[in-house]
Amino acid sequence: MRTTLTPSCRYRLDIQGFEHLTDETLAPVAAWLRLAFVLCALLAGIGTALASPTILLMLFPIAALAALFPVHPFDLIYNHAIRFATGTGPLPRRGAPNRFACGLGAVWLLATAWAFHAGLVVTGYILGGLMTGMALLVSSTDICIPSLVYRLLFGFPRPRGTR
């Protein structure tokens, strides 16, 4: 269990909307914040590889709920099971940049599912590949491109130490 975060990791999490949390709160669970993105990448990747609108549409309500509520549905797996095995606290609520990212993901899933359904297989593979790639990026590095878009539109948090 980590007790500190590197400044770059901390800033990437701040961009996702966790800027109001202390390092002491965030560090022990920071890696577990990636679980939702790992599962989304896995399911989007499977749906894309199989050119399956059904699998992609099954992921849509999960992404839509993650956009509407501050707790991602996949966070419930950690909050109600994994955390008891790890001895860590619950995951923090997700901020607006993270929910914005999930909203974009929900729309992207619909577009990808539609492309496969309409027989636009190349378009579906491109859209699905980009979606899976973005989910893999945030799940491996905490760099969330849609959160960056949100921050471009609504402002970036100040780096720590400049407050």
Protein architecture, described:
The chain has helices at 7-18, 23-26, 35-49, 53-68, 75-86, 96-117, 121-141, 145-154. By secondary structure, it is mostly helical. It has one domain. It is built from eight helices and no strands.
- When the domains are counted, the total is 1
What is the terminal separation in angstroms? 28 Å
Radius of gyration: 16 Å
Structural class: mainly alpha
Q: Can you summarize the main beta sheet? A: none
User: What is the overall number of helices?
Assistant: 8
Shape verdict: globular
Tally the beta strands.
0
Strand-residue proportion: under 5%
Helix content: 55-70%
The stretches of 5 or more residues where confidence is low (pLDDT under 50) are none
- Strand and helix order: HHHHHHHH
Average of pLDDT: 95
Features:
163 residues
Give the secondary structure arrangement, pairings included:
Blueprint: H1 7-18, H2 23-26, H3 35-49, H4 53-68, H5 75-86, H6 96-117, H7 121-141, H8 145-154
Short description:
The protein contains eight helices and no strands. It is mainly α and 163 residues long. The longest helix has 22 residues, at 96-117.
